[in-house]
Write a structure and sequence with these properties.
By secondary structure, the chain is mainly beta. It contains two helices and 13 strands.
């Protein structure tokens, strides 16, 4: 489900509910433009759809490890709701940009800003992330799904 919301009557913000759409973020905002693979390694490149902004998302998959490199500028703020019940170990480095994460069972918002990182073992996730638009967003994320 995708809808637009006016924030403070001035700025538009798009909301995307991935749990309803049964996809991930790149499945909504980007299109696969290149895929290459061999026996143990897969390389995928996605280009952002002009509706959402410009830039790309690159994935490297091998030995049950996924490395995702996000390098884009969104046209406007984007709030992404999702629910994930898969256990995974995640390491993330935010090289540029800003994101605010919220969890459904916790009213505290967690800011994630340029030059910050985290490592977490995630058993379940139910909440949202807000990625701020009109500024470069650069993140390297390593997952062991």
């Amino acid at each position: 489900m995708i809808w637009k919301k006016k924030r403070r009557g001035i700025v538009n913000m798009e909301k995307v509910d991935l749990s309803v759409l049964k996809t991930d973020l790149k499945g909504i905002i980007a299109k696969e433009t290149h895929k290459s693979s061999c026996k143990v390694f897969t390389y995928l490149k996605y280009s952002l759809l002009p509706k959402y902004g410009e830039g790309c998302i690159t994935e490297f998959c091998f030995n049950n490890i996924v490395i995702t490199i996000s390098d884009y500028i969104l046209n406007e703020d984007l709030v992404v709701y999702f629910k994930d019940e898969k256990n995974k170990l995640q390491l993330s480095f935010l090289l540029g940009g800003e994101k605010v994460m919220s969890f459904k069972n916790n009213y505290e918002r967690i800011p994630y800003e340029t030059q910050e990182s985290y490592m977490a073992y995630i058993e379940t996730y139910n909440g949202n992330s807000k990625i701020f638009g009109k500024r470069p967003y650069k993140e390297i994320k390593i997952n062991n799904p």
